[in-house]
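README, section 4: Worked example with a bound small molecule

Sections 1 through 3 covered apo chains. Here we extend the same pipeline to holo records, where the ligand is supplied as SMILES alongside the sequence. The molecule in this example is coenzyme A. Nothing else about the input changes; the structure line simply encodes the ligand pose together with the chain.
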Amino acid sequence: MPQAEELIGERLSLRPVGPEDLGRVQQWLVDREVGRYLLPVWSLLPTARGGRVERLYTAPDGVHFAIVLRRGSRPIGICTLFGIDWIGETAEVGIVIGEKALWGQGYGPEALSLLLDHAFGTLGLRRVFLHVQASNTRAIRAYEKVGFVHEGRLRIAQLFFGKGAEILVMGLRAEAWPGARTMEVGA
Ligand SMILES: CC(C)(COP(=O)(O)OP(=O)(O)OC[C@H]1O[C@@H](n2cnc3c(N)ncnc32)[C@H](O)[C@@H]1OP(=O)(O)O)[C@@H](O)C(=O)NCCC(=O)NCCS
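The generated complex, written as C-alpha cells:
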C-alpha cells in the first residue's frame, strides 16, 4: 500500500488519520445525527466493547484521511477508501463531515474530489463505488455533484436502529475523472 501523503485543496486538505484523531472521530460517530446514515459496512462505528475505530489507521486494505480545514488546521471529518481490491482495481468510498454546523457548505464534495484524485491518480484505481441510504438526500446530492452515478438499489434492506432501510449503490469510473491515470497499453 503506497503511503498516502497530504492532499491540498482550496479550503481543505486531507492527511492520513492518526491515533491523535481517534477521540474526535469517536465523538462524531456516536452522535446520533451524524451516525444515523452511516452504514454497517463501514465497520467503523465505535462499540461499547472499546471501539473499532482504530481500523481507521490500521486497516491494510484502505486509506483513511482526516478532512482538515486549511484555515485554522481544524479536523472536521474523515473520508476513506476501504476494501481496496488491487486485482479488480476498485474500492469503496466513505465520508463523514463530523462537524454538523459545516454541512451544506460544499465541504463534502471538495473532500471527495481530493479523495478521488488520489484514488484514480495516485492509486490508479479504475472504479470506486459506495452504498448510501435512499433517504440520505444530502449525501446523494453531494455524490452526484462530484460525478457518481446511480447503479442500483439493493433488494435486501439492511437494518438501522431496528428499522429497514433502502440502500442505493452509486459508482464512478476512472474514465469519467479528469485526473485519472491513463491506462497503460496491455495493462
Ligand atoms: C453527506 C455529507 C458528506 C455531504 O457533505 P456536505 O458538505 O454537507 O455536502 P454539500 O454541502 O455539497 O450539500 C449537498 C447537497 O445537499 C443539499 N442539502 C443541504 N441541506 C440539506 C438537507 N437538510 N436535506 C437535503 N439536502 C440538503 C445542499 O443544498 C447540497 O446540494 P446543492 O449544492 O445542489 O444545493 C455530509 O453532509 C455528512 O457528512 N453528513 C453526515 C454523514 C453522512 O451522511 N455520510 C454519508 C454516508 S453514505
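What to look for in the output: The first helix runs from residue 22 to 30. The chain has five helices and ten strands.

Section 5 describes how to batch many such records.
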